[in-house]
């Protein structure tokens, strides 16, 4: 619950942004894959830091021992690297304020917790979960704010010693004075909150196990963080973190809160909306440049009408003033559009550097084929998927890949079923179609196997087709013979991938189909 945040009437002017002095961080918890919302927060922090010649830090908040998993830290690190969001300090690379993993900083938190206890700004609370639940229920029925009653705040040192010697379960709470405080949100403007609605918040399970808000405040202070830029779901944490900082008499960073990324039903983006993590998009074969561009425009508006940005252009254009307040709606179709744009720009680079192939997409395509085609050799399937990956990126939205891949590209993995009626083009009859296929068979058969490549195939096919008054008389029946489909890549593209032997086999099969079933067929086009 956000503790009664309001917009104050007084004018509040934020301190200026000083180039070269900015230190920002992204601090994900390794309890799941790198969420797209976290990735966008990382992007905005990265852009802000680079624009003002600042430092971008990656910190891992793994104090939740039960849920934290090294495999998720690995996913976070690899996801940020894939997006091109390199950090200047942090896990894996170190820095002046190391360590950058909270589980390795316990001794630091203990020092500050001890200090608060000695100054009587924190106290031990021995209330059981059942007692606290009853207390909250009573407050709710009375229409009161839900806050801790401070029952344990008045325990004597003797009572505390007795409870602890008995091994009674306890937590540490912070004494929070009742007052009104204002902080300036760099995105939303000045916000006022009332601490009397906070209660004395829990800050640690014990002297060596801090809770999230306490550890975050200490880390931000120790690492000299100047700006905390994060999702609006953290607004409720801001008053608590400010209260902790004030108790320790340390300066809070400046805060700014982005709108959440929402699904079309306007709830927080999750798996049920489709892809929810960076790895999901990697598996589907999206380009990192497309994902970065798309995430940047989810909740941020440039001053002009541009939609396509390089990372350097985003750094130059980015400003906190351009970040909107309302939730940003995830649109898979727009991401597909971005991917198509960047794919066209990147295709030449891919063709020149096979190492740049989108391997995640190839692996995903391979898995789809294996589910549908049982008999084929796995090595052949993967190679064929590698051969057609550019055609897939060009013709099929990646959001439709699982549903449409085999129906659109299945003919690359087995002989298509050819319906003789599809072979007809306009006013051509059976004899015309048969002759067209025989002619193109002879032409393609003459191409030496070692010269079987797309440029030569296209030249031979189109040179022959241009001799007719209508190229469709050659290209259409050849397309159907090779793919069995009315919509497919160009016949020269298909032939170059199938290889000479398979191409000629399919043409012969189409001629046979005409002989068997085509006597009474009439033109369909």
From TrEMBL:
Which parts of the sequence form the motif 'HIGH' region?
28-38
What binding partners and quaternary form does the record give? Monomer.
Under InterPro entries, the record lists: aa-tRNA-synth_I_cd-bd (IPR045462), aa-tRNA-synth_I_codon-bd_sub2 (IPR020751), aa-tRNA-synth_I_CS (IPR001412), aa_tRNA-synth_I_cd-bd_sf (IPR008925), Glu-tRNA-ligase_bac/mito (IPR004527), Glu/Gln-tRNA-synth (IPR000924), Glu/Gln-tRNA-synth_Ib_cat-dom (IPR020058), GluQ/Sye (IPR049940)
What is the top-level taxon of the source organism?
Answer: Bacteria
The gene designation is gltX
Q: Where on this chain does ATP bind?
A: 271
GO CC annotation, single: cytosol
Question: What GO molecular function terms would the record report?
Answer: ATP binding; glutamate-tRNA ligase activity; tRNA binding; zinc ion binding
Assigned protein family: Belongs to the class-I aminoacyl-tRNA synthetase family. Glutamate--tRNA ligase type 1 subfamily.
Domain Glutamyl/glutaminyl-tRNA synthetase class Ib catalytic, by residue range, is 21-337
Question: Gene3D superfamilies this protein is in?
Answer: 1.10.10.350, HUPs (3.40.50.620)
- E.C. code: 6.1.1.17
Q: What is the stated purpose of this protein?
A: Catalyzes the attachment of glutamate to tRNA(Glu) in a two-step reaction: glutamate is first activated by ATP to form Glu-AMP and then transferred to the acceptor end of tRNA(Glu).
Q: Which UniProt keywords apply?
A: Aminoacyl-tRNA synthetase, ATP-binding, Cytoplasm, Ligase, Nucleotide-binding, Protein biosynthesis
Enumerate the catalysed reactions. tRNA(Glu) + L-glutamate + ATP = L-glutamyl-tRNA(Glu) + AMP + diphosphate
Protein name (Swiss-Prot/TrEMBL): Glutamate--tRNA ligase
Q: What stretch of residues is annotated with the motif 'KMSKS' region?
A: 268-272
Residue ranges of domain Aminoacyl-tRNA synthetase class I anticodon-binding in the record: 403-511
Q: What Pfam families would the database entry show?
A: Anticodon_2, tRNA-synt_1c
User: What PANTHER family does the database record attribute to this sequence?
Assistant: GLUTAMATE--TRNA LIGASE (PTHR43311), GLUTAMATE--TRNA LIGASE, MITOCHONDRIAL-RELATED (PTHR43311:SF2)
Query: Where is this chain's protein located in or outside the cell?
Result: Cytoplasm
> Which species?
Candidatus Terrybacteria bacterium RIFCSPHIGHO2_01_FULL_48_17
One of this protein's GO BP terms? glutamyl-tRNA aminoacylation
Q: Does the keyword Ribonucleoprotein apply?
A: no
What is the enzyme's class at the highest EC level? ligase
